C-alpha cells in the first residue's frame, strides 16, 4: 500500500530528524494526526511542510510540537504543504541571519536556552514575540518593510500568519 509506505517513511523521517526514540513512534503518530485534524491540511501537506523545514527547526531547537502548531496555524491561513515549509524555513533562517543586525539597532534580542539534550537552542517563538512587540510601535507600512527586510517575501508570508496566532502557537 503506497499510503502506508508514505506514512511510515514520514514517521521515520520525523523520528530521525528530531532524535525521537522509536518506542515513542505511537505518540508521534498521534501528534501528527491531531495536527492534521486541527488544521486544514492533510498528512501529505504536513509531510511536505516538515520536509522543507524540520531540519532547520531541529537545529534551532524548535520542537516537533511547536512545528506542528505552526503548520496547523499556517494551514488555517491558507499556507500548506511545501509553501508553508519553505516559508517557515526561510523565516527561521533569516531570523538567525539578521539577529545581530536587529540587536545592533536595538530592535530585538533573540531568546536562547538549553534543550533537553544539552544543546543551545533558539526560542524562536519568544524571539518573534520580541520582534512583534517592537513592530507594534511602528506605522503599518514600516512594519511591513521591517518584516520584508528581515524575512524577505517568502519568509514574511509565514511570519505574518504566525504573528496573528502567536498565542495559540506558544501554548
Derived structural class:
mainly alpha
Average of the residue pLDDT scores: 88
**Helix and strand pattern:** HHHHHHEEHHH
Low-confidence stretches: none
**Adjacency order of strands in the biggest sheet:** 1-2
Between the first and last Cα atoms, what is the distance in angstroms?
A: 36 Å
Description:
- Helix 2 runs parallel beside helix 4 (64-76), helix 3 (43-60) runs parallel beside helix 5 and helix 5 crosses helix 8 (140-164).
- A two-stranded antiparallel ribbon has the order 1-2.
- It is globular.
- The chain is built from 9 helices and 2 strands.
- The longest helix is centred in the last third of the chain and has 25 residues, at 140-164.
- The protein is mainly alpha-helical and 171 residues long.
Topology:
Blueprint: H1 2-18, H2 25-38, H3 43-60, H4 64-76, H5 81-97, H6 99-104, E1 112-114, E2 120-122, H7 124-135, H8 140-164, H9 166-170
Antiparallel strand pairs: 1-2
Helix pairs in contact: 1-3, 2-4, 3-4, 3-5, 5-8, 7-8
